[in-house]
Q: What sequence folds into this?
């Protein structure tokens, strides 16, 4: 390790510690309910060190949400690898059910962040918007693979079910979420295929 490499690694490690602390505090108390001072105290660093990595708390919130987005995208891609259509949707239902049962689960971090940030031009809302656009495209691919005649419309329905499951996993019984979401995804995808199947049968 060179003399130049050590400080860079130390800086990366400090940034990760700040993000880890922010992730815990944001999940427990919300972004607006967590001050930069609380994060600084949790990590045990000076304000100078904190602001060297994040100029504002908004920058920290953006970094937190981007990390959450990367994690959710990776998880979606992993559980649906080799799966298509309804099989992929059911794998996502199982994933959301598992997440809902984790200790400290507080619902969807993107829904929570948007609820705390009314300004649509806020950088936080921009991260939320990008991730939700990605997720809608992901669901549209699933819908198309399942044979839905209008994948974009079906994707919107799947997104609403996903959002409801994330809220329900926090407010209701998380153990039931996977099964209920599985059934809902199945119903939407089956229903979306019925008009196309009927038309195909009619034109035979």
A:
């Amino acid at each position: 390790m060179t003399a130049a490499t050590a400080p860079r690694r130390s800086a990366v490690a400090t940034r990760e510690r700040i993000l880890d602390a922010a992730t815990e505090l944001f999940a427990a108390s919300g972004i607006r309910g967590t001050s930069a001072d609380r994060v600084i105290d949790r990590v045990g660093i000076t304000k100078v060190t904190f602001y060297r990595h994040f100029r504002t708390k908004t920058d920290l919130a953006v970094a937190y949400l981007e990390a959450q987005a990367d994690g959710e995208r990776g998880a979606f891609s992993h559980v649906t690898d080799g799966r298509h259509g309804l099989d992929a949707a059911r794998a996502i239902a199982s994933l959301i059910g598992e997440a809902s049962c984790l200790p400290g689960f507080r619902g969807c971090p993107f829904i929570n962040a948007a609820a705390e940030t009314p300004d649509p031009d806020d950088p936080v809302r921009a991260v939320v918007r990008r991730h939700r656009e990605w997720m809608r495209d992901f669901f549209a691919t699933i819908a198309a693979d399942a044979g839905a005649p209008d994948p974009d419309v079906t994707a919107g329905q799947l997104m609403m079910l996903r959002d409801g499951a994330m809220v329900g996993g926090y407010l209701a019984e998380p153990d039931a979420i996977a099964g209920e979401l599985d059934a809902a995804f199945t119903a939407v995808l089956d229903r979306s295929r019925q008009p196309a199947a009927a038309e195909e049968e009619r034109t035979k």
Observations:
- The chain is about 75% helix and 0% strand.
